[in-house]
Specification:
- By secondary structure, the protein is an alpha/beta fold.
- The protein folds into two domains: about 150 residues, HAD superfamily/HAD-like (Rossmann fold, 3-Layer(aba) Sandwich), CATH 3.40.50; about 90 residues, Hypothetical Protein, Haloacid Dehalogenase-like Hydrolase, Chain: A, domain 2 (2-Layer Sandwich), CATH 3.30.1240.20.
- It contains eight helices and eleven strands.
- The protein is globular and about 55 Å long.
- It starts with a strand and ends with a helix.
């Protein structure tokens, strides 16, 4: 059986920007008791604290949990507290170019919404994230904005021509993430391999955006075994099956 179970967060373990629900928290707690677990997501560290850590037991099982915010551009492990091992931050010039490119694409596509909830473009240090309706938009509004990813695929195509030196990927329900080239979930998986000494063949990656252009898709390039899920409810059934195999 595999030694490390790697998850996406939004759309896989939790509804976008929302905490783990009670059942998911319980299942992840059980999984941490029998295996090493990692979560790679476009969210920044404070989002991980809110969505994940506040809903898991504060015990030694956290030593089996490895967190990679902003699509793997940061890496946290637990010792006596959570420690950041690295952060692949942008330069000021890089940030300005990416933010200006987002603004240009919003204007050219007409995808600049009049009603938003919070910042549309967020500087996460090692990642710049566009959220069409703002960072605090209600989930029901977000689900309606781009359910088939068509709007964001159009924006990505334009961004790829404006900032070809960076990596552009689609995540969550309304988001587009930009990172340094080669720094994505494939990079995060390789960092897990190098840091933990676990081969990629001994990992499973579970995510809801494994399709081309999705921010989980780079994981497929590593050769890791992948499981596509529709939503957190399906992820729960997958976790139950993994726990049963490991305990059996």
């Amino acid at each position: 059986m595999k030694k490390l179970i790697v998850f996406d967060l939004d759309g896989t373990l939790a509804v976008s920007k929302s905490p783990l629900d009670e059942e998911m928290s319980k299942l992840l707690g059980e999984l941490l008791g029998v295996a090493k677990v990692s979560i790679i997501s476009g969210g920044n560290w404070p989002q991980f604290e809110k969505q994940v850590l506040s809903n898991l037991p504060s015990d030694d099982s956290r030593k089996n949990l490895f967190l990679l915010p902003t699509c793997g551009t940061k890496f946290y492990k637990y010792e006596s507290d959570w420690t950041e091992l690295y952060s692949e931050d942008f330069t000021r010039e890089d940030k300005e170019k990416i933010i200006n490119s987002f603004k240009q694409v919003m204007t050219s596509t007409g995808y600049k919404e009049k009603k938003v909830w919070g910042d549309i473009i967020e500087d996460r240090g090692s990642q710049i994230t566009f959220s069409a309706l703002g960072q605090q938009a209600p989930i029901e509004e977000k689900k309606k904005w781009d359910p088939d990813f068509s709007r964001r695929k159009k924006m990505k195509a334009l961004l790829d021509t404006l900032i070809p030196e960076f990596s552009v990927s689609l995540g969550g329900t309304t988001s587009i993430d930009v990172t340094k080239p080669g720094i994505d979930k494939a990079y995060g998986i390789r960092k897990l391999r190098d840091t933990l000494g676990i081969s990629i063949q001994d990992m499973i990656f579970i995510g809801d955006a494994l399709f081309p252009g999705g921010n989980d898709h780079p994981a497929t390039e590593t050769g890791v075994v992948t499981i596509q899920v529709r939503d957190p409810q399906e992820s729960k059934r997958v976790i139950e099956a993994i726990i049963a195999c490991l305990e059996g």
